[in-house]
Specification:
CATH superfamily of one domain: GAF domain
Radius of gyration: 48 Å
Strand content: 5-15%
Structural class: alpha+beta
Distance between the termini: 230 Å
Shape: elongated
Order of helices and strands: HHHHHHHHHEEEEHEEEH
CATH topology of one domain: Beta-Lactamase
CATH architecture of one domain: 2-Layer Sandwich
Number of strands: 7
Helix content: over 70%
Length: about 525
């Protein structure tokens, strides 16, 4: 009886224990299942957040590029005053508004929304500043626009925009790091719970194995998606990663995002020689539509814009320098010619150069004469006469067109270095032309080719020299006409004085004649009275 009672009690205890164990197993299974789905959801959310971060960074970068394009269009218009230079500015303004709208849809973080509000205000302020300078240029000219630019307001606004963009990028990066840390903690907790739970869930081991396999397959699918998105959106190295190595997949994604941020920062600092880590000639074709390829294309375009800006600045400074020489030497044509050709040869890094002027003082003997020559770092005092249409100089003056040769005949150049060696191979002859009227030509020879912007620069200088020569000729002609007029006036005054003297002499002669006639009449009258008296007697 005692044994029976003990068995019953034992069975009850055993059943109760099994029920407890089963309930605990179910509880563990439920918790394990919950954790599994939480991890899956976290991974999926993390993947979405990564894409979200990429989209935000891409839009922020697009905004920076749009503002720089707007500044490029602004500078082009301020310098030239030509309306078509405003096309990049107008397109960038529309692009900036679109980007800000996209960011407003993407950002859900309160702090980021505050940053977006500040960014929108600064961008609007930046475009207002650029619009003011453009309006000043259009209505009041370059000097007024330059005054607005020199206030440095645009740079200060741009610095604020960069700070806000940097804060937004940092916040997105920090959020990404926090999500990755949370994901790592969840993974570790899940692994510990599985180990502990497996001790208590022996009865449902097969189910647990199946559940684990399903969970693993789901995780593998998620990491496979991450790997695919990493290759399709960020950087395609040309091969797949082992998706079972979760750390490698995650690290690859983080590495690519870090490389993208570093690349963007370097380009933003003007370091256009930076390379995107991992992007090579072998996989370049695979990354035409990825972030890496897009960023490299952006860098190339910005580099091209910077190079064009450098060329424009070079030409602007050169024109200003030569213009200052023309202004100071406007009353001395020989000094002007020497100073211009010396500075021009040095500025374009030519070997030698000459400045020729069309001499049409005698309409029956019009020819081209050399005003100044500079070669091999020395001024050459040469006299040279060229007939119209004779040689390249005569042809350039007669036709009014630029001539550029890349293979100069050995016998063409009359000046050599005197130290032996080869002669220059490239020759540029530019007419001094303004309003289709030619006043002479510039001749430059160099060992290196003349680039297009250098040729355009020399042509611009030719117009300035032609304008100055035209003004000098007008002044000289005016002086000659004034001298002739003064000479004629002197002659007329001399003739008037001579006529006055002749008139006075005639008047004196007339008065003398009248006096003599009067005296003769008086004598006759006296004689008549004398005769009359004799007759009366």
């Amino acid at each position: 009886m005692t044994e029976l009672n003990f068995e019953l009690v034992w069975r009850k205890v055993k059943n109760l224990t099994i029920e407890i164990l089963l309930a605990f197993s179910v509880f563990v299974l439920i918790v394990n299942t919950f954790i599994t789905f939480s991890n899956d959801a976290a991974l999926e959310e993390n993947s979405n957040q990564l894409i979200h971060t990429y989209n935000v960074l891409q839009q922020v970068d697009a905004l920076s590029i749009a503002i720089k394009d707007a500044e490029t269009g602004q500078r082009g218009y301020l310098i030239t005053g030509e309306e078509h230079y405003l096309q990049p500015y107008l397109a960038a303004r529309t692009q900036s508004n679109n980007v800000l709208d996209n960011l407003k849809k993407l950002l859900d973080n309160p702090e980021q929304r505050k940053n977006l509000a500040k960014l929108s205000a600064k961008v609007a302020e930046k475009f207002d500043e650029m619009e003011n300078s453009i309006t000043a240029r259009r209505n009041n000219g370059l000097n007024e626009a330059v005054k607005l630019v020199k206030t440095d307001k645009g740079r200060i606004i741009m610095d604020n925009i960069r700070l806000i963009i940097a804060d937004m990028s940092e916040i997105e990066t920090d959020l990404l790091a926090e999500r990755n840390d949370s994901l790592d903690r969840q993974n570790k907790s899940s692994q510990v719970f599985r180990i502990v739970g497996s001790i208590f869930v022996i009865a449902i081991i097969l189910f647990a194995i199946k559940n684990t396999r399903d969970q693993k397959a789901s995780r593998l699918q998620i990491f496979e998606n991450i790997d695919n998105n990493n290759r399709n959106l960020l950087l395609n190295l040309g091969h797949h990663l082992d998706i079972t190595d979760e750390q490698a997949v995650t690290q690859s994604l983080i590495t690519n995002l870090t490389n993208a941020i570093n690349f963007i920062s370097s380009v933003g600092e003007g370091k256009f020689d930076v390379e995107f880590n991992g992007l090579t000639d072998e996989n370049k074709t695979l990354n035409q539509n990825t972030l890496a390829g897009s960023l490299v294309n952006m860098r190339d375009k910005l580099q091209q814009v910077a190079a064009e800006d450098t060329k424009r600045q070079w030409a602007t400074e050169g024109v200003a320098h030569v213009g200052e020489i023309l202004r100071k030497q406007s009353d001395n044509i020989e000094g002007l010619a020497h100073e211009v050709i010396i500075n021009l040869v040095k500025y374009v890094k030519a070997t030698q150069g000459g400045l020729f002027s069309l001499n049409d003082t005698n309409q029956h003997d019009t020819y081209i004469e050399m005003l100044a020559c500079y070669a091999y770092d020395r001024t050459k005092y040469l006299q040279r006469r060229v007939e119209l249409g004779e040689g390249l100089i005569g042809e350039a003056v007669a036709e009014g067109d630029t001539i550029y040769l890349t293979d100069i005949p050995t016998s063409y150049l009359r000046i050599t270095s005197g130290l032996g060696g080869e002669n220059p191979s490239y020759l540029l002859v530019v007419p001094l032309k303004i309003n289709e009227q030619v006043f002479g030509a510039i001749e430059l020879a160099a060992f290196h080719p003349f680039e297009e912007h250098q040729i355009a620069f020399v042509e611009k200088i030719g117009e300035s020299i032609a304008s100055t020569l035209s003004a000098i000729r007008i002044n000289e002609q005016t002086k000659r006409l004034l001298a002739d007029a003064q000479m004629q006036a002197e002659q007329m005054r001399a003739q008037e004085e001579e006529m006055r003297q002749n008139t006075e002499e005639l008047q004196a002669t007339q008065e003398e004649s009248e006096r003599r006639v009067k005296e003769l009449l008086d004598v006759i009258s006296d004689k008549e009275r004398f005769i009359a008296q004799l007759q009366r007697k």
